[in-house]
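Contributing new records

If you add data, match the layout below exactly. Sequence lines come first and carry their own label; structure lines follow with theirs. Keep one chain per record. Anything else will be rejected by the validation script.
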Amino acid sequence: MKFEIVDYKKFLENKDFYYEQIPKAQNSDEKYKPFIFTYYKEALKSNDKSFISICKEDNEIVGIALIRYYIEEKKFFLINVNTRKDFQHSNKKIGTNVVLNGLKNFFENKVDNEIFLWVNKDNIYAKKIYEKVGFEKTSYYPTKLKFLENSKGEEIYCLSKEKYMQNNNKKNEFI
C-alpha cells in the first residue's frame, strides 16, 4: 500500500484519475460520480489549507480521508473517511492508516494545533479508529456550520497536536 497527500493542484493535474477513483473508494454508484468529484474539488479549491489523504494499492484508491479547513468556523475537520468494501481490502487497517497519514501531514505541516471531526454516535467502527489515534469526545459544537444543525446523533471529537504526539510518537509508523 502507498499513502500520499493530494492538494488542489495535484487534484487538477490528475482529475480524470480522481474522477474515476474517489467514488469507488466511497463505494458509490456510478451516477454519483459528478457530485462526488465536484464536492472534493470544491473542498480543495475553497482554500489552500485543505487536502486529501489517500491510500493506493495497484494504482487504485482503496482509502480516502478529507481534511478540510472551514473558513467560517476557523477550524480544521477530518471528514469523509472511506475505504473500499472489496473483500481483498478488508481487515488491512486501511481506514486507520489513511487517517494516520492525513494527521501526520496535518500536524507536521499545518499551523493549527487541533483538528475536529463529527461522527454518528452509532458508528462504533469509526469511533474506535478515531479513539485509537487519540481523538476525544468534546463539548465544542461548530456554530457556523449550518448543515450540522439538522443532523441527529452526531458527536464531535477533537485531537490536539500534543495528544497526537503522545499516542503516535511511540509508533511513528503506520499500524
